[in-house]
Automatic annotation (TrEMBL):
Domain of life from the UniProt record: Bacteria
Keywords: Iron, Metal-binding
Protein name, UniProt field: Pirin family protein
Cofactor binding, note field: Binds 1 Fe cation per subunit.
Obligatory cofactor(s): Fe cation
Residue ranges occupied by any Pirin N-terminal domain in the UniProt entry: 10-120
Pfam families assigned to the protein according to its UniProt record, in alphabetical order: Pirin (PF02678), Pirin_C_2 (PF17954)
Binding residues for Fe cation: 58, 60, 102, 104
Family under the similarity heading: Belongs to the pirin family.
Amino acid sequence: MNTVIHKAETRGKANHGWLNSHHTFSFANYHNPERMNFGVLRVLNDDIVQAGMGFGTHPHDNMEIISIPLEGDLEHKDSIGNVTVIKEGDVQIMSAGTGVTHSEKNKNNDKEVKFLQIWVFPKEKNVTPRYDQISIREIAKENKFYQVVSPNKDDQGVWINQDAWFHIGNFTKGNSDEYKIQKEGNGVYAFILEGEVEIDGEKLSKRDGMGIWNTKSINVKASENARVLLMEVPMSR
């Protein structure tokens, strides 16, 4: 088993007033040659957008872009006709493919919106752009990981153009679950959304990240009440 630890306080930081962001991997003005990606996981941004503010219309291509709101409401508009609002309990994906433009705005004028912005390199390039969004409220489980992203379009979760699987787990103190790698050669990047956990003996706290590869499974145990995001991805493009 190989591992890499990224403590919360070591992440890149960018505060633009309307946007306060922490970057697990190199992004924009934050550049760390030792933290460019984890396999095909290229971006993991922890964003806070002030009331009524947002990202203006901008382009993307050949990237799988996943948004997971943690608090508040985020309005999304794109060039393929989608106008929607995502909120805590939703997961959104946009396969940019041959090219798409979109904007994201805090829907509310009286409170912040907090969300994860995640970019994954695609399995196939230049596909037709595609959008998907689900509510995970009905599939959420306690003390067990449940799937929210899958490469199989008929499977549970949003459909991604990559051999990647994302799971979320909500754990009460003392409970644990084993996660088994879905595809040989993949690794898992664990991101602690809330609380404290141990992953195969390594202690991690809120917003810490841990990459694990060359293993068939990992064990996650909650030292305190915790919420954990697991992102299984190919380790090479």
